[in-house]
Amino acid sequence: MAQPLQSINLVAPAFKGINTEDSPLAQDTSFAEVADNAIIDRRGRLASRKGNSVVTTNKTVLGTDYLHNIHEFYDSAGNEVIFSTGNNKIMTGTTTLVDATPGSYTITANDWKIVNFNDHAYFFQRGYEPLVYNNTLGAVTEMSSVSGAHVGSNQYSNEVLAAFGRLFVVGNATDNTTIYWSDLLVGHNFNSGSSGSIDVTKAWPDGYDEVVALAAHNNNLVIFGQHSILLYEGATSPASMTLADTVSGVGCIDRNTVQSIGTDILFMSNSGMRSLGRAVQEKALPITDLSVNVKTEIIEVIDAETEPMASVYSPENSFYLICFPSQATIYCFDLKGRLDNNSYRTTRWTSVGHKSFERDTDGTLYIGTTDGIGKYGTFLDNTSVYRFRYFSPALTFGDPSKTKIVKKIKPTLIGANEETIFVKWAYDFETTFTNYEINVGNQVPAYYGVSEYAVGTFTGGILTTKPTVNATGSGGVVTIGLEADIDGSQLSIQEINVLALIGKTV
Q1: What's residue 153's pLDDT?
Q2: What distance in Å separates the CA atoms of residue 346 and residue 266, rounded to the nearest whole number?
Q3: Among 287, 210, 222, residue whose Cα is nearest residue 250
Q4: What CA–CA distance (Å, rounded) separates 381 from 328?
Q5: DSSP states of 465-504 as a string?
Q6: CB neighbours (10 Å) of residue 384?
Q7: Running DSSP on this structure, what letter comes out for residue 391?
Q8: Separation of alpha carbons 268 and 416, rounded Å
Q9: Is the pTM above the cut of 0.90?
Q10: Where are the domains positioned within the chain?
Q11: How many CA atoms within 13 Å lie on the side-chain side of 376?
């Protein structure tokens, strides 16, 4: 009597994102060993990310540099200006980048922090006089030339926060422990009125530290050091604010990683992504690492990074992106919910040219590259395809000691119109995979009675592909993979059914 086939049904494979931390043999099959250029879509499926649609057609002023910063200024009258920085210049525009650097102003670096405050855009970079723009001025100009300005070299800062009716900045070229605040509602007045300062040198809980980033949370001014965090309450009246709390053992490694997500603040520490709320709750022993499933991997990426990081929070896409520009890698943290270990589901974007981000007031996600300004949308990186990749953990069929002879692999795929899909498999942790190519032609949507309930709809339907792959080979464990070159059409994986014969003990 022939032995029946045993089945592993991977429903919504990679629903929990990637896990490169735990042993592949110990992992839930809802994890993935690899989930590249992917997101977790709103139905919980692993899906290809959107691409970068470049809108800049004239980037002469940028030269061979990339856009280090993108910033939207929107004043109370509804006037919008998109600023960007690169090639030691400040630029305006999206389709054509126009040099807006003050004529007498020499810039030799691109590490600007730009904020909007009281109908002005303010530009700060360590060692440089701050710049200011509003539509009345009509141009970017030195702060000292603005009517009513009172600014000194102490405000030649690299970090600025607009909050509580003021600007808050950090020291100058040599001072990383003094916080200065402007006069109420006057962002270019730091030397009169209700302006002031505070030295936090002696406030750090673990000895000397330096200010890396500032944030506002509830009524607190949050001061991120490299190794600790300070929270000052009563920041609406900063002259009388008091130290309300401190956090030891965790800090922020880059100001550009700090993102407010409404009820909480996310940031990158030297051990991965953290939550301010959890760090405060855990006090002197902050243990909740929101990137715990990729902990070792992301620490290695952090240590190798040679350029300022970039991040963005997109409520429309329910994700937080952290970009490591020199390594052309982005980690995408899905914020729709946490796993049992309090981590966010994580996917990885690879071989990307992304260098900076900006989410504008209508939810458009701008991307800065060497090509200029792009938008998150379509399913091409400008005009180039990109590779979507999924690989499962090691599948044991309940017993890694017995031989598995995989007979059939049956994926259910959504989308992928006119794209080539590669189904892959390998045994016993081999890195060379057997490859089966599926050419998906131009399809019509699946309809009720053909596609699965809640996947296809009666009126319009969606594209559904259900190929059957006859597999070969044998081993104690098997890894299943699926890759596709995304060329204008999104691909998501609904499920993968793996059928195998179970043989003798290996």
Answers
A1: 87
A2: 14
A3: 287
A4: 13
A5: E---EE----BSSEEEEEEEEESSS-EEEEEEEEEEEEEE
A6: 13
A7: E
A8: 35
A9: yes
A10: 6-49+388-505, 52-110+293-377
A11: 22
C-alpha to C-alpha distance for 91 and 111, rounded to whole angstroms: 14
Residue 479 contacts residue 391 (beta carbons within 8 Å):
yes
Q: Is 226 exposed, middle or buried (0-12, 13-18, 19+ CB in 10 A)?
A: middle
Residue 285 pLDDT: 64
- The structure tokens 């943290």 sit at 333
Would you say residue 459 has pLDDT above 50? no
- Mean pLDDT, range 267-273, rounded to an integer: 95
Q: What are the tokens at 220? A: 């607190």
Cα gap 471→241, rounded to integer Å: 68
Whether residue 455 is predicted with pLDDT greater than 90 in this model: the reply is no
More confident residue, 445 or 192: 192
CB atoms within 10 A of CB 106: 8
For residue 261, what are its two tokens? 């997500």
Q: Which two tokens stand for residue 139?
A: 């141009």
Domain 6-49+388-505: what homologous superfamily? Galactose-binding domain-like (2.60.120.260)
The rounded distance, in Å, linking the Cα atoms of 460 and 448 is: 9
> Considering only CA atoms, which of 197, 236, 241, 198 is closest in space to residue 218?
236
Task: Please give the average per-residue pLDDT across 260-282, as a whole number.
Answer: 93
Structure confidence at residue 461 as a pLDDT band (50, 70, 90):
low
Quick one: tokens of 297?
């991997």
CA gap 368, 375 in Å, rounded: 9
Q: What pLDDT shows up at residue 456? A: 41
State in Å, rounded, how far the first CA of the chain is from the last one: 22
For 193, left (φ over 0), alpha (ψ -120 to 50), or beta?
A: left
Give 181-240 pLDDT, tens digit per residue.
999 999 999 999 999 999 999 999 989 999 999 999 988 999 999 999 999 999 999 999
Q: In what order do the strands lie in the sheet with 120-124?
A: 113-117, 120-124, 131-133, 141-142
Cα–Cα distance, 78 to 43 (Å, whole number): 36
Token pair belonging to 479: 């890894």
Instruction: Give, as one character, the DSSP assignment of residue 58.
Output: B
